[in-house]
Amino acid sequence: MNNYETLYVLKPTLTDEETSANIAKIEEILVKNGAEILATNKMGMRRLAYPVQKNERGVYTIVYFKATGNVIAELERNLKFNEEIIKYLTIKYTKQKEVAQFEKLVAAANQVKEEPKAQEAPAEAEEVATETTEA
Fold first, then answer.
1. What is the pLDDT of residues 11-52, one digit of tens each?
2. Half-sphere exposure of 18 (CA within 13 A, CB side)
3. pTM for this structure?
4. How confident is the model at residue 125 (pLDDT cuts 50, 70, 90)?
């Protein structure tokens, strides 16, 4: 199995629920075809370098996964037919240095997922501390 990264840009007019549904749908396609998803990096709304389908902005998402070559054809076929996706790009990591960089990217994407949970806990602790000192 090879290491792959797929970046895709969703339309900026989608709601959060529609965006999450599209991301889940793409991950489901990968899993159904035998890919192992290592991480998903939801980068959020960003400005595009140039207008694409009259859109100045887009919701960027990167999926890091391991799969065989035939999975990519099926994934890109589904990305092409999805009207909510305005751009996509799949990169294959094969050389040893590329794979090392890929592993760093996966670790960084997984770390970004864990950080918001860690930041929420201290904020709640501060609220409790201020409430007890006011009483």
1. 999 999 999 999 999 999 999 999 999 999 898 999 999 999
2. 11
3. 0.77
4. very low
Total of domains in the chain: 1
CATH number at residue 97: 3.30.70.60
Q: Which domain holds residue 119?
A: 2-134
Please tell me what DSSP assigns to residue 95.
S
Q: CA 28 from chain center: how many Å?
A: 13
Cβ–Cβ < 8 Å for 14, 86: no
Alpha-helical regions (H) of 33-95:
69-81
User: Which are the contacts of 57, defined by CB distance < 8 A and separation ≥ 6?
Assistant: 12, 45, 46, 47, 48
